[in-house]
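Design a sequence for this backbone.
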């Protein structure tokens, strides 16, 4: 897109007003206020307050409309004249059967219209040629000089324009008696809004911009039929007529077939070459899109062949026929080969008789000069807009509009500057070449489609916000019918005037120069969308604008005198301004109003897609303009929208309903109208018309009471004829009714001449009532007669103005202000009097000063009304002045007694008026009170005051009147306050310090602070803390000196209390040490008894829930119950309510289930800690053979039966010895002592049973059997030494494996050997199972029963005893070996070894990573120096930590290590005898040793008593 030129200069901006909310509430009043300024510009813009934003009330989904089509270059008046001229000249050539193209000069199309006008202005063709002024013509056409353009223009003028001008002037009809076609009446009558449509084709698609885009595209040459049917092609393609002269740019239409005559003869086609002349010849093309220069054209043209020659060929034998054809110019019939026959009137002309003469016979259709002139003189049809055929919704129209604008400007719609759109609009409007078509949804009736403002009707319910806007005077549905508006007195809903019209615009859609109907006001509100650009001309320049447009485009106004009333014509504002017409502009944005004033011409266009609403309104000042408009319409013979006379009379009929300003304006108009009516009726009498008839014209349709001459709507009177009932005239055109006799004509009137003055008088009374009232008010306010009116009289005048609806004038405002001021004075005087009566109880802050009282009295005296309260105010003033004198005397005679001062002060407070001396009295009284309060506070017998009281006294002392006594009291207070604050700070430091002070120090501080006569909170807190400390010390002494050791809970309570005290206590340290020692003992005892992650507490482990006998009965009952449960090893075992439940919550079943030897309940072997056969055998095989199966550790106690580690009795005794050293009582210690006593008692009974003869004999047999089995295994061992290490013989173990070192293998080099030996050990034990036989002893029932009872009691004890193991071996030897349990334990150990092996490898990799990161190697020398307890515990701690870290890293994939088996007495103790070490089998992090090495290990020694 090529941007528009910068030639357009925007006019100045119109006034813009921003009313306040107070001004905005009265719409018509505000418009009247700004009218003196805004009327000078014709239009103005109003921005409402920012928060006035009416909701958009149109139903968007149901809003459908059909827009108008606008071709921009046909809107502008001068451009339309040029287009009309081109249409005429094109028609001139077309009707003669030829076509032409508008030539290009200097790369722009030649303006034929301007060329013709300039030639006429310069004196005509002959004069210019004679004076050789074609160069001046080129200069006036703005062509550059020096290029011989003048001769080129002359050539174009001669061959295109000059023939047309000759026809127009009639020069070629000199010898013909042709009647000109210009005697028709020029002033045609036009009906508004019913103009014939000039445009009869659909708009072009919006993807191209009219001809401007099409010119760049070569199109196929259209046929004559296409051109005839498409006016678009006519518009820019100029068809010419005339001869085919050498160098002339005129050519006949290109046809393939010759025109047939009546007999069907045809002329053969021939080729005519059109030669080039001066480089300006054009290739002929019927397309309006391309103009190519300097080309030769070959076109198929028919051979010259006229109708006359064809007839001669056809009728050559008819001599009479030949003679009938004679030339209309020379009246001769010779040279018939050059005789032309007109296709319009069949007249004959010689080609050499024509002006100008034709060199040859033209081709195709030809018309004579008479027919051509008649056709060209035909007036053009009226111009108007056509309706589009497509119906739009708001959404579809907006999409089309935005797409068009974005494509046209090649940028987003919101980024296109308004200045650019404005310049481009006027460029397109003034362009002949470019034809841009847009659509405009204008004059859409809101009554049918709905207003954009909320409307109060029954169709829909309005919200409170919508209801507010529906009643607003700025709502365009409300403004025309406001009380001050004239249009509210018209009953009919005049669409566009009383009822708003809606406008949906797109870019470039325009509204042309016009004034409103009846020269009324208009107001336009832009609801939303892009701006609307306005141009306005004030009413004073309206006639000047009309004259300029008529002067510049007389052709348009000759055919349409009321052209400016049709809203179809634009003219560039720059053109108007250059001719002296004042023009202003503005951009109306969304949410803004634009107001046009009476007879103010305005036009404009839309910047883009938007939605606006407009309506007319009329105020009182419009009435004279409305009357002048009717006279103007009468001269133009234009129809009226409503009768102005009817409107005036209707308002005059009810003057009491009129606004006063409106009544005055109606009275003036009515007076003029009555005078004119009298004059017209007098003229009617002079003509001799005496018949009259009353007629209610308001009941007649408008078309039945319109003057047939001037189209004015009659109301007061009209002239009619009895013989011609179809028409009537107004009294201004009584001679134009008809040719009938005056006796047949009669007057039709609405009111008599006597009724009209009566109506006028009522208006006068209404209008002049204000003057009478104003005089009364003026006399009352200015007290001209010397008498002040009462308040009641002034209120009566104000009430009269309200009832009679007088205007809000300055006088009325003065009256209201006077009443308001008087009423305020009365109210204030009454308040003053009532305040005196109320005395001290009146509201504070309402007192009046003495100066204000005097001014108030003067104000009441100056008011123009009488008030009896003035006397009361004078009396109060006298009392105040007398009191003032007494107060001054009392202050002068110092020192006065405080009682007298207080009495005077109270009297002053009762006056209700502030007296200056009263303040001095108040200060003296306050000083005396303060000194008295200080004296009482510092008195020795007085109660001690707080620091806040002291500070308050100092602050109050600064506000009292200064005196020596006050200064002395302030100094004493300040000194006392400083000392008190210092001691308070010292006490605060003692309370908050980290280092606590002893009681003696605190006691000294408190003793010194008691001498200060001030209450100190921190000293008091310190005193309370000291008292609590003494009480605490007494409690400690009582506990420590008691008969029994104190309980740990009591000591902990005393320690907690002592720590919270801000006192340094020596006893607290001793108590803390005792509590710490007790906690250390409890922690050691817990480590001794509790398993890792145990859910039990130490007290729960060592304490007895019940008595010993009850516990035994309970376990027996439990064993009976569990024994009755089905065995999981049975093949038919199913889950039932009596089945055992493992710790995992499932029923144990099948292989892998173990039965507790104490409670007889069943568990999954993988869910509990089970005995380890391999570990137990390695520790005992040095003294017993493998086949001594009764010594195998197969005893299993479930987690519910064995809840602790079960330390040895010696370890528990060591704990008890340490407990005896503690001066504290622990519940765990007492429970542990009871447990020890029970264990010792059981141990004694067990030893007594084992020492009996029967049991001693049984133990001897077992010893012999063990020795025999051991002796039998020695040859096999020696045999195994000689066997190969990689092979095995029979079921005996390899000797090499049995003789390996017993130390645990921890080095990485031995891991492979260790894994292999562990696997062989398990295979060895599995191979021995078939060889196990038993029982090896026969236990009589008398012996078995005590042993089993002792075994059960020993298992209930949470203590490990050697006697328990001996009894277990005897009972095992007295029964067959439990092969199923052994097999289950082996399988569980295999699975455990596999998991431990994986775990050991991961731990080894972890240790290597630590070494790689720079970890230090262990120092052997340092290890030798460390205690054994530390060296033995650190690796275990490290391994346990590594195991825990490994579990976290592996996410729980490593199999869990089972708890160590506590069934065998394999646990050891540290050097102190307080912390037992883990059993050998519990160290799962270390690799397993071979079974052979375990056999060679010696049994661990029992700790000595000294170690305990």
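Sequence:
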């Amino acid at each position: 897109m090529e941007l528009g030129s910068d030639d357009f200069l925007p006019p100045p901006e119109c006034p813009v007003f921003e009313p306040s909310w107070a001004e905005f509430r009265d719409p018509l009043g505000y418009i009247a206020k700004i009218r003196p300024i805004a009327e000078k510009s014709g239009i103005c813009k109003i921005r409402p307050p920012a928060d006035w934003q009416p909701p958009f009330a149109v139903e968007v989904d149901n809003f459908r409309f059909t827009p108008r089509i606008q071709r921009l270059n046909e809107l502008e008046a001068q451009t339309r004249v040029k287009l009309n001229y081109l249409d005429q000249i094109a028609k001139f050539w077309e009707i003669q059967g030829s076509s032409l193209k508008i030539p290009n000069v200097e790369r722009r199309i030649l303006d034929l219209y301007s060329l013709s006008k300039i030639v006429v202005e310069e004196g005509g063709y002959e004069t210019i040629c004679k004076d050789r002024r074609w160069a001046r013509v080129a200069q006036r056409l703005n062509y550059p000089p020096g290029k011989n353009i003048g001769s080129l223009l002359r050539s174009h003028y001669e061959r295109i324009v000059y023939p047309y001008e000759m026809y127009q002037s009639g020069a070629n009809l000199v010898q013909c008696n042709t009647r000109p076609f210009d005697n028709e009446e020029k002033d045609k009558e036009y009906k508004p809004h019913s103009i014939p449509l000039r445009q009869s084709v659909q708009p072009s698609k919006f993807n191209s911009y009219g001809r401007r885009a099409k010119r760049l595209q070569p199109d196929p040459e259209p046929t004559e039929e296409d051109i005839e049917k498409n006016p678009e092609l006519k518009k820019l393609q100029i068809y010419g007529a005339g001869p085919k002269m050498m160098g002339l740019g005129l050519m006949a239409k290109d046809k393939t077939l010759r025109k047939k005559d009546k007999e069907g003869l045809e002329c053969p086609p021939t080729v005519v070459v059109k030669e080039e002349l001066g480089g300006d010849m054009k290739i002929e093309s019927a397309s309006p899109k391309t103009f190519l220069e300097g080309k030769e054209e070959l076109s198929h043209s028919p051979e010259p062949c006229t109708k006359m020659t064809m007839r001669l060929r056809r009728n050559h034998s008819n001599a009479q026929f030949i003679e009938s054809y004679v030339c209309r110019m020379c009246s001769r019939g010779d040279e018939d080969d050059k005789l032309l026959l007109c296709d319009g009137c069949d007249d004959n002309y010689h080609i050499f008789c024509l002006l100008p003469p034709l060199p040859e016979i033209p081709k195709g259709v030809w018309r004579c000069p008479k027919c051509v002139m008649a056709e060209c003189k035909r007036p053009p049809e009226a111009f108007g807009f056509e309706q589009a055929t497509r119906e739009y919704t708001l959404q579809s129209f907006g999409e089309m509009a935005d797409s068009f604008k974005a494509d046209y400007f090649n940028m987003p719609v919101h980024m296109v500057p308004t200045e650019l759109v404005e310049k481009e609009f006027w460029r397109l409007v003034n362009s002949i070449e470019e034809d841009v078509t847009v659509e405009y949804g204008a004059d859409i009736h809101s009554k049918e489609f709905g207003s954009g403002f909320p409307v109060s009707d029954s169709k829909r319910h309005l919200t409170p916000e919508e209801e507010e806007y529906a009643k607003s005077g700025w709502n365009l549905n409300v403004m025309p019918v406001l009380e001050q508006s004239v249009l509210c007195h018209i009953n009919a809903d005049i669409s566009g005037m009383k009822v708003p019209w809606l406008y949906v615009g797109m870019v470039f859609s325009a509204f042309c120069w016009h004034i409103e109907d009846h020269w009324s006001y208009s107001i336009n509100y832009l609801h939303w969308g892009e701006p609307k650009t306005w141009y306005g001309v004030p009413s004073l320049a309206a006639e000047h604008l009309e004259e300029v447009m008529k002067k510049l485009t007389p052709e348009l106004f000759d055919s349409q005198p009321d052209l400016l009333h049709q809203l179809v014509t634009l003219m560039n504002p720059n053109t108007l301004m250059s001719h002296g017409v004042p023009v202003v502009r503005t951009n109306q944005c969304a949410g803004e109003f634009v107001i046009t004033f009476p007879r103010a011409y305005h036009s404009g266009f839309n910047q883009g897609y938007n939605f606006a609403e407009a309506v007319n309104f009329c105020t009182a000042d419009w009435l004279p303009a409305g009357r002048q408009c009717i006279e103007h319409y009468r001269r133009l013979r234009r129809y009226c929208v409503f009768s102005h006379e009817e409107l005036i009379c209707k308002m005059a009929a009810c003057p009491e309903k009129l606004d006063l300003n409106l009544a005055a304006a109606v009275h003036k108009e009515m007076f003029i109208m009555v005078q004119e009516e009298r004059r017209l009726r007098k003229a009617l009498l002079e003509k001799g018309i005496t018949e009259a008839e009353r007629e209610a014209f308001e009941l007649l349709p408008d078309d039945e009471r319109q003057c047939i001459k001037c189209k004015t709507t009659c109301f007061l009177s009209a002239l009619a004829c009895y013989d011609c009932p179809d028409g009537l005239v107004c009294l201004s055109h009584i001679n134009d009714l008809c040719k009938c006799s005056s006796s047949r004509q009669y007057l039709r009137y609405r009111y008599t001449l006597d009724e009209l003055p009566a109506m006028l008088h009522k208006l006068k009374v209404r209008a002049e009532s204000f003057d009478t009232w104003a005089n009364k008010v003026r006399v009352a306010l200015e007290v001209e007669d010397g008498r002040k009116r009462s308040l009641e009289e002034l209120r009566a005048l104000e009430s009269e103005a309200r009832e009679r609806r007088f205007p809000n004038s300055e006088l009325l405002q003065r009256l209201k202000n006077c009443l308001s001021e008087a009423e305020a004075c009365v109210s204030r005087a009454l308040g003053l009097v009532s305040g005196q009566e109320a005395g001290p109880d009146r509201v504070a802050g309402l007192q009046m000063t003495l100066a204000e009282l005097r001014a108030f009295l003067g104000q009441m005296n100056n008011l123009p009304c009488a008030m009896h309260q003035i006397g009361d105010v004078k009396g109060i003033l006298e009392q105040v002045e007398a009191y003032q004198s007494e107060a001054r005397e009392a202050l002068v005679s110092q020192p006065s007694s405080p009682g007298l001062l207080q009495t005077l002060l109270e009297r002053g407070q009762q006056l209700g008026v502030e007296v200056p001396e009263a303040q001095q009295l108040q200060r003296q009284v306050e000083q005396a009170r303060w000194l008295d309060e200080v004296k009482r506070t510092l008195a020795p017998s007085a109660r001690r005051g707080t620091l806040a009281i002291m500070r308050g006294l100092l602050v109050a002392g600064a506000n009292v009147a200064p005196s020596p006594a006050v200064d002395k009291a302030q100094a004493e207070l300040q000194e006392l306050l400083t000392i008190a604050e210092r001691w308070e700070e010292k006490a605060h430091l003692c309370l908050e310090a980290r280092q606590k002070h002893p009681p003696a120090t605190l006691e000294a501080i408190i003793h010194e602070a008691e001498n200060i006569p001030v209450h100190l909170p921190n000293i008091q807190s310190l005193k309370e803390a000291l008292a609590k400390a003494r009480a605490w010390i007494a409690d400690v002494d009582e506990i420590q000196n008691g008969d029994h050791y104190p309980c740990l809970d009591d000591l902990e309570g005393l320690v907690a209390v002592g720590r919270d005290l801000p006192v340094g206590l020596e006893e607290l340290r001793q108590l803390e040490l005792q509590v710490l020692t007790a906690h250390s003992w409890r922690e050691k005892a817990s480590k001794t008894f509790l398993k890792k992650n145990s859910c039990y507490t130490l007290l729960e482990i060592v304490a007895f829930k019940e008595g010993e006998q009850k516990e035994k009965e309970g376990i027996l009952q439990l064993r009976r119950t569990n024994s009755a449960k089905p065995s999981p090893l049975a093949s038919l075992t199913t889950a039932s309510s009596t089945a055992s439940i493992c710790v995992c919550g499932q029923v144990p079943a099948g292989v892998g289930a173990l039965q507790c030897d104490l409670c007889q309940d069943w568990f999954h072997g993988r869910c509990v800690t089970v005995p380890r056969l391999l570990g137990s055998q390695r520790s005992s095989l040095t003294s017993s053979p493998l086949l001594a199966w009764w010594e195998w550790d197969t005893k299993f106690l479930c987690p519910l039966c064995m809840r602790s580690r079960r330390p040895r009795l010696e370890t528990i005794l060591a704990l008890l010895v340490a407990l005896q050293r503690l001066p504290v009582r622990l519940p765990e210690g007492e429970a542990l002592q009871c447990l020890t006593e029970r264990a010792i008692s059981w141990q004694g009974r067990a030893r007594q049973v084992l020492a009996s003869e029967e049991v001693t004999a049984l133990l001897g047999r077992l010893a012999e059997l063990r020795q025999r089995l051991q002796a039998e295994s020695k040859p096999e061992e020696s045999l195994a030494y000689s066997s190969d290490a990689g092979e095995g013989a029979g079921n005996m173990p390899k000797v090499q494996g049995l003789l390996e070192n017993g130390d645990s293998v921890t080095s990485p080099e031995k891991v492979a050997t260790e894994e292999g030996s562990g696997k062989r050990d398990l295979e060895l034990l599995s191979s021995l199972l078939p060889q196990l036989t038993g029982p090896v002893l026969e236990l009589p029932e008398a012996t078995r029963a005590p042993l089993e009872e002792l075994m059960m009691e020993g298992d209930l004890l949470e203590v490990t005893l050697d006697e328990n193991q001996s009894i277990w071996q005897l009972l095992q030897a007295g029964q067959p070996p439990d092969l199923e349990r052994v097999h289950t334990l082996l399988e569980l150990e295999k699975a455990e070894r596999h998991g431990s092996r994986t775990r050991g490898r991961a731990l080894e990799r972890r240790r290597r990573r630590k070494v790689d990161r720079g970890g230090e190697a262990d120092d052997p020398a340092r290890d030798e120096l460390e205690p054994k307890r530390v060296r033995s515990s650190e690796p275990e701690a490290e391994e346990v930590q590594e195991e825990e870290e490994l579990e976290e890293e592996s996410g729980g994939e490593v199999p869990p290590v089972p708890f160590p088996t506590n069934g065998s007495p394999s646990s050891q103790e540290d050097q102190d005898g307080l912390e037992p070490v883990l059993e050998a089998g519990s160290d799962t992090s270390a690799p397993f040793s071979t079974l052979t090495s375990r056999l060679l290990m010696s049994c661990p020694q029992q700790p000595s008593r000294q170690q305990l």
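The mean pLDDT is 74.
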